[in-house]
Design brief:
heterodimer; A: 483 residues; alpha/beta; five-stranded parallel sheet; 15 helices; 19 strands; globular; B: 201 residues; Aconitase, domain 4; seven-stranded mixed sheet; 9 helices; 7 strands; 33% helix
């Protein structure tokens, strides 16, 4: 590269490739390569299109599935929630009327939208991807610029395949070193969030760099990018590399032959140029991380599993003090003690954060030949029907069922508690999902966010438990294979 | 789109940081297929007791604040999910502006598209507002979007930031989708220039 050329970040490159227009008095008009749709945030957008007499501009770039409000019980049973049933029927009608590909209730490819996009090869490096769901940041693991949008913007993309956007600032999250046994990708992202807080990335896109990130599988990278939004960053990206290309190759919608070769040549140009500047940066040492768990009511309120819950009186800022008091009051926790040994009622292994095959393998590696404590309900909800099928082929479902857990159909389930899978008031859950907001998993329910490993260990013990105490001779990280 | 120009109103103080959209409108109310009736569910888990009756301890149930159109919230208001149901619920309840030190990105974008004005103030003004309201809960403030000013009785005029495009859209009630459609030729040109690299499925 000549000195005259500007060094660009991954974000700059993907952004520049998608600018349709740059009007002087308005945000840029950005082209959207892939638009994912689900039943909860799309109905009003289709109504808007109908009112304007418009069609979907690029139905072939639009992919729909139902995930949020669908039941995860026996699929032969009817949907008992009339509102959810209406929403699902409406998505079916909208997909039919507007000619959109739908992975419907009967499809073997149905699943959480952020699980099936990568699985089917829709998600690829260098793309712009949006969905009316904040965890669209997941797809950034492939070096795509992927972010959540509201329903008005869903309508804009349906109608024009474009969005008005201001270019985000960049925030490098460098993670160097090697994870210790028993520490996972989930612990990296929970550690980042505890460091920068839930508003720390507002106005920015994270780019995760460093040797620890390079060493992660695609599924682990997705776990990290998924929770970028919990730090306030709409998107989180990882430069594509051979790990990415190996994952993408040969999937149903992945280019083939010379198209693949051409795409690969383009994708290899995407990583941030040497010397490019980020607006902000933070560094984490992976080797110093422990398993993480949240104690409060947002994902930034997390700590190493053996560290005492902080004391409100030691907070310097009055608002922080008040927030911590409110959170501990809701959670029914005392400051000054670690969460180890805290009794729990439910363990949820699922969600777009941690319900891919490697997550299930990890949980199963601990649950094999063990029993869930009698006071605990364990729900295992695969991220897609394809993950479910793969897990069953490997016999993981038997491990979960023999341990006393429930093996359910794919969906968002207890992550958002819209479908009847929910906590009862006052119940405690260790959850592999992404949000511990008040009532997120059911009104009055109390959530501890953690990795699949911590969740499985806690299910067995019936209390919050450090998985490392269980595991002396079992591999602590699942092999990085893919569905 | 809903317009916004001038607003004089009392303020509801909600001194809570990081209010997430699950609090603004819990997920179980997202099963609607239209935008109607969401005002009833605004802050549902803070506003109603388990038997469904209003919790007199929650500020929105205090008759003193009935009819107030401005919410004064803690830092980082609207974090969490992308649900546009959050601004739909706030506007259906009657709010037209929210004052905070910062707003989550997606919430801020969604609000502007629904005529709900996010007013960003610095920490000093933020604290002053809470202090003044504790002394005089009935205090009214005046927002002038064209001038980007917030008038608080007895204090110097506050100028708040907003990007020029959003301001124009709010003042003139510009339909953003209609605006994007004026670029149809540019969109078609982009698509034909990128036909080989963007083809799929």
């Amino acid at each position: 590269m000549t000195p005259m050329q500007q060094q660009l970040t991954l974000v700059d490159k993907v952004w520049n490739d998608h600018v349709v227009a740059e009007p002087p008095d308005a945000p840029s008009l950005l082209y959207i390569d892939l638009h994912l749709i689900h039943e909860v945030t799309s109905p009003q957008a289709f109504t808007g299109l109908r009112q304007r007499g418009m069609r979907v501009r690029r139905p072939e770039r639009t992919v729909a599935t139902m995930d949020h409000s669908i039941p995860t019980h026996d699929p032969s049973l009817p949907i008992s929630d009339a509102l959810a049933a209406t929403q699902i029927r409406q998505l079916e009608d909208n997909a039919r009327e507007f000619g959109i590909r739908l992975y419907g209730m009967d499809s073997p490819h149905r699943g959480i939208v952020h699980v099936i996009g990568p699985e089917l090869g829709f998600t690829r490096p260098g793309m712009t991807i949006v969905c009316g769901d904040s965890h669209t940041s997941t797809h950034g693991a492939f070096g795509a610029l992927a972010f959540g949008i509201g329903t008005s913007e869903v309508e804009h993309v349906l109608a024009t395949q474009c969005l008005l956007q201001r270019k985000p600032r960049t925030f490098e999250v460098r993670v160097e070193g090697k994870l210790s046994p028993g520490v996972t990708a989930k612990d990296i992202i929970l550690a980042l969030l505890s460091k920068i807080g839930v508003g720390g990335g507002t106005g920015h896109v994270f780019e995760y760099t460093g040797s620890a990130i390079r060493g992660l599988s695609m599924e682990e990278r997705m776990t990290i990018c998924n929770m970028s939004i919990e730090g306030g960053a709409r998107a989180g990206m990882i430069a594509p590399d051979d790990t990415t290309f190996e994952y993408v190759a040969g999937r149903e919608f992945t280019p083939r032959g010379t198209d693949w070769e051409n795409a690969l040549a383009q994708w290899r140009k995407l990583p941030t140029d040497e010397g490019a500047k980020y607006d902000r940066s933070v560094t984490l040492d992976a080797g110093r991380l422990s398993p993480m768990i949240t104690y409060g009511t947002n994902p930034g309120m997390g700590l190493a599993i053996d560290v005492p819950v902080p004391h409100p009186d030691r907070m310097t800022n009055a608002h922080q003090q008040q927030a911590l008091r409110k959170a501990l009051d809701y959670m029914g926790l005392q400051p000054g003690r670690s969460l180890l040994g805290h009794p729990i009622d439910v363990v949820f292994i699922g969600s777009c954060t941690n319900a891919r095959i490697s997550d299930l393998r990890l949980a199963a590696s601990l649950l094999r030949s063990r029993k869930v404590a009698p006071n605990v309900r364990l729900l295992v909800v695969p991220g897609s029907q394809a993950v479910k099928k793969q897990a069953e082929a490997e016999g993981l479902h038997t491990v979960f069922k023999d341990a006393g857990g429930e093996w359910r159909e794919a969906g968002c389930s207890m992550c958002i508690a819209m479908n009847g899978d929910q906590l009862q008031p006052g119940q405690y859950a260790v959850s592999t999902s992404n949000r511990n907001f008040e009532g997120r998993q059911g009104k009055g329910g109390r959530t501890f966010l953690a990795s699949p490993l911590t969740a499985a260990a806690s299910a067995v013990a019936g209390r919050i438990t450090d998985a490392r105490t269980f595991m002396t001779d079992t591999p602590l990280r699942a092999p990085a294979t893919v569905v | 789109m809903a317009r916004f120009n001038l607003l004089t109103s009392r303020i509801v103080p909600l001194p809570v940081n990081d209010v997430d959209t699950d609090q603004i409108i819990p997920a179980r109310f997202l099963k609607a297929v239209d935008k109607n009736g969401l005002g009833e569910s605004l802050f549902a888990d803070w506003r109603y007791r388990s038997d469904g009756s209003p919790d007199p301890g929650f500020i929105l149930n205090n008759p003193q604040y009935r009819g107030a159109q401005i919410l004064l919230a803690g830092d980082n208001f609207g974090c969490g999910s992308s649900r546009e149901h959050a601004p739909w619920a706030l506007t259906a309840f009657g709010f037209r502006a929210i004052i905070s030190t910062s707003f989550a990105d997606i919430f801020g974008t969604n609000s502007l598209k629904n005529g709900l004005l996010p007013v960003v103030v610095d920490e000093t003004v933020h604290r002053t507002l809470f202090d003044l309201l504790s002394q005089n809960p009935g205090m009214e403030v005046h927002i002038d979007l064209a001038r980007q000013t917030l008038d608080i009785p007895g204090t110097p005029e506050v100028v708040f930031p907003i990007d020029g495009f959003s301001k124009t859209c709010l003042l003139e009630g510009i339909d953003e989708l209609g605006y994007i459609l004026t670029f149809s030729d540019a969109i078609a040109a982009y698509e034909s220039a990128h036909a080989s690299t963007i083809s799929q499925g």
